[in-house]
Amino acid sequence: MKIALSNLATLVGGTILCGDPAGQITGFASLKEAIAGDLSFFHDPRYNDRLVKTHASAVLVPLGWKEFPPNASCIAVSDPSRSFEQIVETYGFQPEPFTPGVHASAVVASTAKFDPSRVAIGPNAVVEAGVELGDEVEIGPGCFVGRNAVIGKGSKLHANATVHAECLLGEGVFLHSGAVIGADGFGYEFGQGRHRKVRQAGIVQIDNDVEIGAGSTVDRARFGRTWIGEGTKIDNLVQIGHNVVIGKHCIIVACTAIAGSAIIGDYVVIAAQVGIAGHVHVGSQSTLAARCGVTRDLPAGQTYLGFPAIPAGDEKRRLASINRLPQLVARVKELEAQIAAGKKA
Q1: Which of 22, 54, 107, 303 is most deeply buried (CB count within 10 A of its CB)?
Q2: Which residues does the annotation mark as catalytic?
Q3: Among candidates 115, 112, 90, which has minimal Cα distance to 101?
Q4: Tell me: the pLDDT tens digits for 107-166?
């Protein structure tokens, strides 16, 4: 791959501020990792030192930027991050194009409803009775789609993803490898010295434009539905318990666990390794920082830290106080010594 800077500038509507327009780039990388031949981008003044030290051959910079790296060409664009994405989408690694058809090794029930000329089902996939697949649905190699499940137009199951019986997926839903939708919720009652399984008879409903990362799990409801709202994006290795309701356009980052019947509002951001107890409510437009432990309802529109999660300002003051404890202990010991010396005098 060799691409002239002039072609890149034309593609993104940019202006070459310095460097040879005929110069060529051969790869893409971040400012810190770039080597000669790479294109990178700069959009945050906090990383100015990385811009100055980069080994990239060319960098996309914001309009009006005037501090150029000594050995790199610069192209000014209105949004360097988006322009970089546009270039990579055009010249970088390309996803496999949609190719309809049912692989010979796939096992597809005769009562499954779909148009074979507008659906792709890969090798060793299993599609059970009563399943409905919309146009442009892709079922990857080794996937399982349980009986009477419905998958909407343009959705994609990457290799080895699982959708259990009766679950409903909207349009444009993406499940990455190893994601499991509709496994039994974790429900048991203890009696007579043993744990008795409580039947999980509900479903999972996933609305349009939801993406769920590799190895993440969404349990079916005990009754009713576990529900993921439109536009929500879920990272890898996330656990969502039975009867959880997650609102629209939320972000849930890796290793988060949400216990049964919790309710998450719209536009909530949940950082890595957050734990949310069952039956609590997290208000819309809240942000939960990494490793929060949510044990009670949280009002909307605030940022929370710590365990148990409290408003960020309160937690920062608490941490500052803890950090001062060694000095306070030393001061108390000093005062005690002074009091003891005074009593002896």
Answers
A1: 54
A2: 242
A3: 115
A4: 999 999 999 999 999 999 999 999 999 999 999 999 999 999 999 999 999 999 999 999
